[in-house]
Amino acid sequence: MTEVWPAQLLVRPLTTEDAGQIAEWRYDGPWRIYDSRPEDGLMSDNAAYLAVAGVDGGPLVGFCCSGAEATVPGLKPEDGVLDVGVGMNPAMVGQGNGAHFASAVLDHYRSTTGIHRLRAVVQSWNERSLRLTRSLGFVEVGKHMCEQSGATVEYTVVIAE
């Protein structure tokens, strides 16, 4: 089912109801690797996870996290750089709204933390997300390999100033 995209987005604390919805999200094809798992920690009282939704109770568009929760295993923190991660409602993916969603997240972190250098990692096969990061001003700074669920995964590391 396709959701109606809200005109304005709000980044707010993640509620238990939000976490329950996210736990049910299922992606198609190779994007299934982004399906939520219990070990993702969204159901915990962890304030590092935030919801991205329409203002005035609009639909849940996605979630974001920062810091250690957004850092893949083995990637070292960098002074003056904030690691960020996002997940978008699969019913809203592929409708041309990724830049709107990601911009709301980036603006939120820049305004609340004062940190303007943001780092993200994208699985290297995910050209759709890599195109989005480039359109938002991120530049590739390297590759990162890590073991996840018994497999070696290659990530592209990108930073936006």
Provide an overview of this structure:
The structure is a single chain. With 161 residues, this protein is α+β, with helices and mostly antiparallel strands. The chain has a domain at 9-115: Aminopeptidase, CATH 3.40.630. It contains three helices and seven strands. Strands 1-2-3-4-5-7-6 form a seven-stranded mixed sheet, with helices on both faces. Strand 2 and strand 3 form a beta hairpin. The radius of gyration is 15 Å and the shape is globular. The chain starts with 8 loop residues before the first strand and ends with a strand. GO terms for molecular function: acyltransferase activity, transferring groups other than amino-acyl groups. InterPro entries: Acyl_CoA_acyltransferase, GNAT_dom. It comes from Micromonospora coriariae. Pfam families: Acetyltransf_3. Keywords: Transferase.
Task: Please describe the structure with a list of short key phrases separated by commas or semicolons.
161 residues; alpha+beta; Aminopeptidase; 7-stranded mixed β-sheet; 3 helices; Acyl_CoA_acyltransferase; Protein N-acetyltransferase, RimJ/RimL family; acyltransferase activity, transferring groups other than amino-acyl groups; transferase
